């Protein structure tokens, strides 16, 4: 795997958290995007080589809403950039990791993404992502 591409943070309300993170990071949010398939609204900040991705549930029954209900707001996942997501899925499966989706799917920010089940990764939700070029 390569660098930490982004850290995903679950928030209740982007209209509150975007200005907060703009102040915190001293940079403006460069993109907001809804990923309909995931029922999530995202907002991105560039901090050096790593991004911060704020995640707000787009629907009351979305995964982010359920996460916040259980755990409250906070870090939701860590995303690693990979050079070849298909090869990485095969490697991780062979190593015994459980993939939430074995077929890469469209994520925010023009990426193909796969998630690993937290029960196989010390309770940390891991995303691997590859830029679609
Ligand atoms: Zn992500």
Question: What would you note in describing this structure?
Answer:
This protein has helices at 14-25, 63-71, 85-94; strands at 4-10, 31-35, 40-47, 50-57, 74-81, 105-107, 111-116, 126-131. The protein has an eight-stranded mixed β-sheet with strand order 2-3-4-1-5-8-7-6. It is an alpha+beta fold and 133 residues long. Residues 6, 8, 53, 77, 79, 127 line the site of zinc ion.
Strand content: 35-45%
- Radius of gyration, in angstroms, nearest whole number: 14 Å
Q: Round the mean pLDDT to the nearest integer and report it.
A: 96
Shape: globular
Q: What's the total helix number? A: 3
Structural class: alpha+beta
The tally of beta strands, per DSSP, is 8
Describe the secondary-structure layout.
Layout: E1 4-10, H1 14-25, E2 31-35, E3 40-47, E4 50-57, H2 63-71, E5 74-81, H3 85-94, E6 105-107, E7 111-116, E8 126-131
Parallel strand pairs: 1-4, 5-8
Antiparallel strand pairs: 1-5, 2-3, 3-4, 6-7, 7-8
Bound molecules: zinc ion.
